[in-house]
């Protein structure tokens, strides 16, 4: 399986952005998918998880109420909708297939005026 993120960019504080993670290869199975992020000089941290099949989700405290993780099974794509963005959300965002232990290459999100 290969994971490819897209949709990152520059957004002003308070703005919104949606990043995507498209899976290709040995898809077809249901796996738990997650989003992580890594800011400069900081460790990678978990942001959100979606438990495929159950469609239940989990969010880090920093993401609760602002971010939404979702999955389009037909497109083999996982999304992270981010609202009310803050400068401290600036980071490289990575998707991670928990079941296969596969990471994407990351997409940069910069929140700045």
Q: Based on helices, strands and strand pairing, what is the structural class?
A: mainly beta
Strand content: over 45%
Major beta sheet summary: 7 strands, mixed
Please give the number of β-strands: 11
| Distance between the ends | 37 Å
List SSEs in N-to-C order.
Answer: EEEEEEEEEEE
In terms of per-residue confidence, which ranges show pLDDT below 50 for 5 or more consecutive residues? none
Helix fraction? under 10%
Number of helices: 0
Average pLDDT confidence is 92
Compute the CA-based radius of gyration: 13 Å
Keywords for this entry:
single chain; 113 residues; mainly beta; 7-stranded mixed sheet; 4-stranded antiparallel sheet; 52% strand
Describe this structure in words.
With 113 residues, this protein is an all-beta fold. 0% of the residues lie in helices and 52% in strands. The protein is built from no helices and 11 strands. The termini are far apart. The model has no long low-confidence stretch (mean pLDDT 92).
Summarize the structure.
This protein has strands spanning 2-6, 9-11, 17-24, 33-38, 45-51, 56-59, 67-72, 77-82, 91-97, 102-103, 107-111. The protein contains no helices and eleven strands.
